[in-house]
């Protein structure tokens, strides 16, 4: 059920436990607000922001150098990072939440914020793991269709450049991007509010959180589509710079996503609102 209050449409949702949660519609202008607040959080938590940014930067570099001569594997693992990004950003959500409550950012506590709701976090990680397992089977099929597995890279030092410069490599990239976009869109739709909600509301179950996340995306199709493309563009910048830009991109998107959640979902600040 939806209703309009002060020119803002709200929607009523109920979890399996009967808890009432209200979602609000966002506008395209909200995206700029979320990013602006993300920048402010980076300035207010520089140590925590750099830490999480460096972790992602080193991860991207490790994947690149470990699989520079195995382009298909590189693309597959890169997608793993995209799928897991909501879970990897948990610590950043916690840092932003700490500051919103007037607390000093605490890196150690943010790293263990999942302990607030361990069972549901584990189930969500399992759900993402299943998606990754399925995706890991799809990528070789794409390669087989375009015969990329039989492609010989004449100059191993060229790595990805040599692969993408070939006809088979370009065909693989086209099918890969289409498939990866569909998988990423699904993961985005069930994740956009799931992790933040599990942090804020210990009474909600992961299934209810994912369903609510999907419903919120459907309620804000245009805004969420642009937000997803914004995230994809920034992550792409982080990847093509061999992870260097991730030092900024990772914390910016993590904090901005937290503020997006707070604009989209109204959580009752009661006994559930415990320090992270």
Automatic annotation (TrEMBL):
<feature type="transmembrane region" description="Helical">
    <location>
        <begin position="224"/>
        <end position="249"/>
    </location>
</feature>
<feature type="transmembrane region" description="Helical">
    <location>
        <begin position="172"/>
        <end position="195"/>
    </location>
</feature>
<keyword id="KW-0472">Membrane</keyword>
<feature type="transmembrane region" description="Helical">
    <location>
        <begin position="50"/>
        <end position="67"/>
    </location>
</feature>
<dbReference type="Pfam" id="PF09955">
    <property type="entry name" value="DUF2189"/>
</dbReference>
<keyword id="KW-1133">Transmembrane helix</keyword>
<protein>
    <submittedName>
        <fullName>Cytochrome b6</fullName>
    </submittedName>
</protein>
<feature type="transmembrane region" description="Helical">
    <location>
        <begin position="73"/>
        <end position="95"/>
    </location>
</feature>
<keyword id="KW-0812">Transmembrane</keyword>
<dbReference type="InterPro" id="IPR018692">
    <property type="entry name" value="DUF2189"/>
</dbReference>
<feature type="transmembrane region" description="Helical">
    <location>
        <begin position="121"/>
        <end position="146"/>
    </location>
</feature>
């Amino acid at each position: 059920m939806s209703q309009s209050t002060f020119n803002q449409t709200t929607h009523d949702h109920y979890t399996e436990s009967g808890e009432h949660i209200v979602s609000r519609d966002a506008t395209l202008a909200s995206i700029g607000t979320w990013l602006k607040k993300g920048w402010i959080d980076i300035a207010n938590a520089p140590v925590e922001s750099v830490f999480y940014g460096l972790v992602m930067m080193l991860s991207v570099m490790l994947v690149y150098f470990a699989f520079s001569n195995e382009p298909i594997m590189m693309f597959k693992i890169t997608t793993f990072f995209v799928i897991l990004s909501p879970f990897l950003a948990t610590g950043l959500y916690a840092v932003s939440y700490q500051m919103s409550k007037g607390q000093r950012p605490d890196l150690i506590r943010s790293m263990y914020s999942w302990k607030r709701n361990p069972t549901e976090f584990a189930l969500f990680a399992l759900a993402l793991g299943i998606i990754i397992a399925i995706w890991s089977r799809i990528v070789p099929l794409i390669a087989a269709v375009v015969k990329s597995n039989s492609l010989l890279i004449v100059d191993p030092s060229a790595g990805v450049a040599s692969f993408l410069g070939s006809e088979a490599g370009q065909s693989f990239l086209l099918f890969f991007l289409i498939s990866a976009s569909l998988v990423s869109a699904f993961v985005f739709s069930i994740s956009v509010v799931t992790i933040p909600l599990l942090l804020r509301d210990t009474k909600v179950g992961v299934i209810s959180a994912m369903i609510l996340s999907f419903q919120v995306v459907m309620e804000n199709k245009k805004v969420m589509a642009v937000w997803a493309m914004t995230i994809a563009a920034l992550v792409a910048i982080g990847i093509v710079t061999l992870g260097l830009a991730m030092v900024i991109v990772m914390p910016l998107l993590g904090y901005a996503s937290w503020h997006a959640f707070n604009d989209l979902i109204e959580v009752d600040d009661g006994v559930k609102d415990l320090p992270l």
